[in-house]
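Notes taken during the Thursday session

The instructor put the following on the board and asked us to keep it in front of us for the whole hour. The protein is ADP-ribosylation factor 1. We were told not to look anything up and to reason only from what is written here. First, the residues (181 in total):
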Amino acid sequence: MDDLEKKIPVLCVGPKGSGKTTLLKKVQQAEGIDYTYSPVPTIGTNIYDINYVNKQGKKQVLSIREIGGEMVTLWNNYLEGVEKVIFVVDTSNLCQISAAAVMLYTLLAEPKLRRSKFILVLSKMDAAYRQMRNEALLMLQYSRLCSELANAPALLEASPLTNTGIDALRAFLGDAKKVDA
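Then, after some discussion, the predicted structure tokens were revealed:
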């Protein structure tokens, strides 16, 4: 690639089973992401490189590292130099949300990420989603985060199965349009 800007390091984290892999595959425009898709839980990490053209017309690569939900205790090893953080929460699993809140607060308090941009992705928007959305935001204390933090996470409602919010996530990641490598 000529006129290549540096790779932008992005971290994608969240509790086990929150939909990180499915979301990233949809952002990557992988085929076959629908209601029949059944991902295998991520053991370790996955890396997704996505090519974009930035606002200045230069090609850039987003290097998104997805860390499996089972590896929460090791997240700290992957924080150095991260510019953007995608935190995914499954709103259909209210039992998991309190644990997700602890994970999110831990990341927001991490000195290595003080300059990183955060986006909180509420995933798995199914028929019961609207009822649970407000409960999830209350449990995560999202409004309090926004009022108290200078670096409060942006909020995005996304569903890789229905394509809802995928373009908004791409815009957050690169403020650009996807190009073929």
